[in-house]
Design brief:
Elements (H helix, E strand, L loop, with lengths): L1 H10 L6 E2 L5 E2 L6 H24 L5 H12 L3 H13 L5 H7 L4 H23 L7 H29 L4 H11 L3 H12 L6 H16 L1 H5 L9 H30 L5 H13 L4 H11 L1 H9 L9 H7 L1 H4 L11 E2 L2 E2 L7 H5 L2 H11 L2 H9 L1 H8 L3 H18 L2 H4 L8 H9 L1 H12 L3 H30 L4 H8 L2 H19 L19 H49 L3
Antiparallel strand pairs: 1-2, 3-4
């Protein structure tokens, strides 16, 4: 059977480059234009998802205009914190997008999200520019609606990746989710390029840009998933190369945004460069074709070297080798059952999930790690104001390093051959910079370098946690239940936003100078390092608790990832036996 499989595969690969009898290398012929266009059209869907994610992380720039909003509304720091909580509370209703997808097409869900964001942020812009006057309760509802729109956008992007990249959905999802972290940096560049003197411009951009991007992404969204006519092995190799290029472009985008925040060059030129880097991924599939055609020798050698990506079609292996099929499936994620005992890695119901000690260790680690980083970003406006710093610069630094942290969340997949460490181990490592950053802020927050360094560390840590959490939830509690179980996990975000934000706001107001407290309104301004000193110390000790919890989680989940590694080794070896290169 094995020779026949190999012969059949060679017949299906007429375009592969090869050596002749004289040792000369023959250039690989380009596939038909229809095939090239079909492949390119599939990648436009991923690029559209990247654009949507890059423009809809609008909750990260709240701190850039929060001080202005607080002044216009004449509210206290505690009530301002409630507005930030309202935006995070929208995540608690994210399940509504899944219900909507059961009744409406994806394009309707996408534009419903755009409409919610347009109204939610648009009304706030009208309020902050004094065009209309609304009571605090309606502004709260607008923040809630704007936060809900982000969840609907995320659902639309997830569905696009799953439908069009069924074999590589993990890579597609991790890449698109990473771009959600650069929204604040992109809007900061646009803010500096258009009108750097008006912070209310952020709300106008939050309202209009996602709507415009939704129209730009409409054609890829309407594309129906197509079957690639090329052989599976050839298609996987091609996809691997395109994903490599896209990740390189993502790293370049991250560094460009980071350097632009401290660059003295034209703000409009920096913003134009960011737009070019976001559009350039459309050329990635064409670059792979060009490399295959013009550099055949390099391509031949590259194909025989190990790649950072492992793309295996498990369904194909099940149908071709029955002896392997009994060992793959959910066991690939560390599943195993002994009698009626459900072990880590199996599908977990709600009752079973909340009865797991590992879940609560995971919950505490997230609650005392990534959620604190998110609350810190919500307070960056007041932190910068109290220390006499530029909030736009801090927002850009946080956003850029959050994006970089999200990209680093793929480290377990890239470095598993050289550095064998469970994903929960990487999770614990990612939490370590957070307490260091907060204690650095407590000691020397008045120094600009220390403030920017700590902001970068917190952004890097929280970005990694946000991106890696979905994979960890899938690994530990079952891939089919990840949608429900992960939504249960992230209930800690609105809880933490309310609790941590309230404590920070209370300490802020307690240290305000009475002489500058307004008499007419409730708005209080605090100046000096004492405004957030106790808050930084409190968050620092909490993040230590989160780090300890993540270490305990790593110790208890090592066997799960050991089984995962063993199954991947057996799966890869079986695949090589079936289809040798």
């Amino acid at each position: 059977m094995r020779p026949r499989i190999r012969d059949a595969s060679e017949k299906l690969r007429p375009n592969r480059a090869s050596f002749d009898d004289e040792g000369k290398f023959h250039r690989k012929h380009l596939p038909p234009l229809r095939t090239m266009f079909g492949r390119w059209r599939k990648w436009t869907v991923l690029v559209a998802a990247i654009w949507i994610q890059a423009s809809t992380g609008t909750n990260f720039d709240f701190s850039a205009y929060s001080s202005h909003l607080k002044s216009v509304l004449g509210i206290s720091q505690v009530r301002l914190n409630y507005l930030a909580v309202a935006s995070d509370l929208g995540k608690a209703f994210g399940w509504s997008s899944g219900i909507a997808l059961g009744y409406f097409p994806l394009s309707v869900v996408l534009f419903a999200a755009a409409a919610m964001g347009f109204v939610g942020y648009g009304v706030q812009w009208l309020v902050i520019t004094n065009n209309i006057t609304l009571p605090y309760s309606l502004v709260f509802l607008c923040c809630l609606l704007a936060g809900l729109s982000i969840c609907w956008f995320n659902t639309a992007c997830f569905i696009l990746c799953i439908r069009h990249f069924p074999n590589n959905r993990a890579l597609a999802l991790s890449l698109t989710v990473s771009f959600n972290g650069i929204s604040a940096a992109l809007y900061s560049l646009a803010f500096n390029a258009i009108n750097p003197s008006s912070s209310n411009l952020y709300l106008l951009l939050n309202s209009l840009v996602p709507l415009v991007v939704s129209f730009a992404a409409l054609y890829p969204v309407l594309i129906k998933p197509t079957v690639d006519p090329t052989p599976d092995n050839e298609s996987r190799r091609y996809d691997s190369h395109v994903f490599t290029i896209l990740n390189v472009l993502a790293v370049m985008t991250s560094f460009h945004l980071l350097l632009s925040s401290s660059s003295t060059s034209s703000a409009r030129l920096n913003f134009l460069g960011a737009i070019v880097l976001l559009v350039f991924p459309l050329c990635a599939p064409l670059l792979v074709y060009a490399r295959d055609y013009f550099l055949p020798v390099i391509n031949h050698r590259f194909n025989h070297e190990s790649s950072g990506y492992v793309m295996l079609n498990i369904d194909e292996l099940k149908s071709q080798k029955a002896s392997v099929s009994s060992k793959i499936g959910y066991e690939q994620l560390g599943t195993a059952k002994e009698g009626n005992i459900v072990r880590l890695g199996d599908e977990h119901s709600f009752r079973l999930l909340i009865s797991r000690l590992e879940f609560w260790l995971y919950y505490i680690a997230y609650f005392c790690g990534g959620t604190i980083g998110l609350v810190y970003s919500n307070n960056l406006g007041q932190i910068a104001q109290s220390l006499g710093q530029n909030s736009t610069t801090l927002v850009t630094i946080y956003s850029s390093f959050s994006f970089f942290g999200r990209l680093l969340s793929a480290a377990p997949d890239f470095m598993h051959k050289r550095f064998r460490l469970a994903r929960t181990g990487w999770f614990a490592i990612a939490l370590l910079p957070t307490p260091i950053a907060f204690f650095l802020l407590a000691i020397s927050s008045a120094q600009q370098t220390a403030l920017q360094t700590a902001t970068a560390l917190i952004g890097l840590s929280s970005g990694f946690i946000f991106a890696a959490a979905v994979s960890i939830t899938s690994d530990l509690f079952g891939p089919n239940s990840v949608g429900v179980n992960h939504n249960i996990l992230i209930t800690n975000i609105p809880i933490g936003s309310l609790l941590y934000g309230y404590i920070a706001a209370s300490i802020y107001e307690a240290n305000a100078i009475p002489e500058i407290t307004p008499i007419v309104s409730d708005s209080i301004v605090c100046i000096g390092r004492d405004c957030y000193f106790k808050t930084f110390v409190f968050w620092g000790f909490l993040s230590i608790l989160g780090f300890v919890s993540s270490l305990l989680l790593y110790i208890r989940t090592k066997p799960v990832y050991h089984r995962l590694e063993q199954d991947q080794v057996s799966l890869t070896s079986s695949y090589k036996d079936l289809d040798p290169l």
